Structure formats: C-alpha cells, structure tokens
Amino acid sequence: ARLRVAGRDAMNARTRERTGVVADAVHDMYAAYGDPVRFDEHLHPDITIWESDQPGEMLRLPELDRLRGQRYEAGRSGAPRPRLVVEDLLVDRWSHVAAVARYVLRARDETGDTTFRVTDVWDLGPGQPRIVHHHAELVMPASTAGRAEGAPDAG
After folding, report:
1. In whole numbers, what is the pLDDT of the chain averaged over residues?
2. Is residue 150 helix, strand or coil?
3. Which parts of 28-129 are beta strand (E)?
4. Which residues have CB under 8 Å from 7's CB, separation 6+?
5. Count of Cβ atoms closer than 10 Å to residue 101 Cβ
6. Residues near 113 by Cβ (< 8 Å), separated by ≥ 6?
7. 13-68 pLDDT per residue, tens
C-alpha cells in the first residue's frame, strides 16, 4: 500500500520563528515544571524521549514517569526545585503540520546552572501542539568538556 502524505505543499513551506504557537507551548510546558499532569499535556501519547541521564534505550511515557521518580528520590535533599529557563529558542514550522524547536534549557538553583541542549519535534495536528520526540543532552561545563574520559583533573 502506498502511504499518502497529507499536506505535501505545507511540508515544503517552512517558516523559521522565535515566537508563535510552538514557542508559547515550550514556555508553557516549562512553566508547568513540578506539575506532571499539566506538563504532560504537551507530550503526545506516543512520544519518544532521549535524555542524557536515561538508562538504556529510548523512553516512552511510562519510562519517563520512572525516570522522574528516580530524579525525585535523588534530589530529596530538601533543596527547592531548580528554576527552568528557555534560551535561544528557534522553531522551524511547516504550516499546521509539524515543527522542530531547538533551544538551550538552563536549570538554575543555588548551586548554579545545569545546561541542556534540547530538540523537540512537534505534531501540530488537530488540538494543541504536542511533542512526538524529545531529545535533551547535558552540556558539560567548559572546565570538563575538553578532557578525555578518565583523564585526571588539571592542577
């Protein structure tokens, strides 16, 4: 059977933007950090996820819940949740069909920033936009990024 691609012309007309429906959804999603129900409204039920600290293969929603539990237990020191800040957001949108959002996500707390490079693929079909694939990569601090694994600290 031949796969029919709906909206072929829409897929050829890309718009690059820093504001709009996808950018608003990214900001709203991170504003909901700490409220998994509201946060997950932005995630497609069939989402795939790659995170720097995930064990094993690609995650789906049930595995994401387990990873959240592990992170919660690891961070139960009583410290407040970090504040999440989206920077350098850039969206390529193909009409009402799909979008790719790329941005830097900083988790800020009293110990400093933890920085991630993030790429999200968004389904812009009926209803609200939802992420169908999320990839977040931890950015190593400049003081450790150039060292080979296992190399001793300088000084």
Report:
1. 82
2. coil
3. 43-51, 83-94, 98-109, 112-123
4. 94, 95, 96, 97
5. 23
6. 106, 107
7. 899 999 999 999 999 999 998 888 999 999 999 999 988 777 677 778 878 777 77
